[in-house]
Amino acid sequence: MPSRLVSNLLLAVLEVRGRTSGEPRRVPVNLLTVDGERYLVAPRGETQWVRNLRASGGKGTLLLGRRREPFVATELDDDEKPRLLRAYLKRWKAEVGVFFDGVGPNSTDEELRAIAPKHPVFRIRSVENR
């Protein structure tokens, strides 16, 4: 099915407070932009950064070169994920495809929906520095 999704992609570093230590934790992430909205996808599933982001109430910072961008993240429901997982896999399947149980960008919506619970996806929105 043809899609009007346009995905601009950028490697970034996610910084979020550790849920136990309270110390800033950093991890490289693939920042996905689809239809003007930005997303973080967890190809490896329920990782430490996912748990830390949830525990922080969705508050984190993206490090883009020398720029620091505070944001608030909202976790998406599984039904919202298939189109974003498809866009993500179109770009990064070679690097992360092994984590998606054989599902790829050409898989059906039903196949993408079936793996959605294993891959948290967060919509991120910038917040002003205070």
User: Using DSSP, what is the number of strands?
Assistant: 6
Percent of residues in β-strands? 35-45%
Report Rg. Answer: 14 Å
The pLDDT mean sits at 88
Helix content: 10-25%
- Major sheet description: 6 strands, antiparallel, barrel
SSE pattern: EEEHEEHHE
Distance between the termini: 44 Å
Low-confidence residue ranges: 1-9
Q: Which structural class should the secondary elements be placed in?
A: alpha+beta
Shape: globular
So how many helices? 3
Lateral strand order in the biggest sheet: 1-2-3-6-5-4
SSE topology sketch:
Layout: E1 7-17, E2 24-34, E3 37-41, H1 48-55, E4 59-64, E5 67-75, H2 82-96, H3 109-115, E6 121-126
Antiparallel strand pairs: 1-2, 1-4, 2-3, 3-6, 4-5, 5-6
Helix pairs in contact: 2-3
Structure summary:
With 130 residues, the chain is α+β, with helices and mostly antiparallel strands. The chain has helices at 48-55, 82-96, 109-115; strands at residues 7-17, 24-34, 37-41, 59-64, 67-75, 121-126.
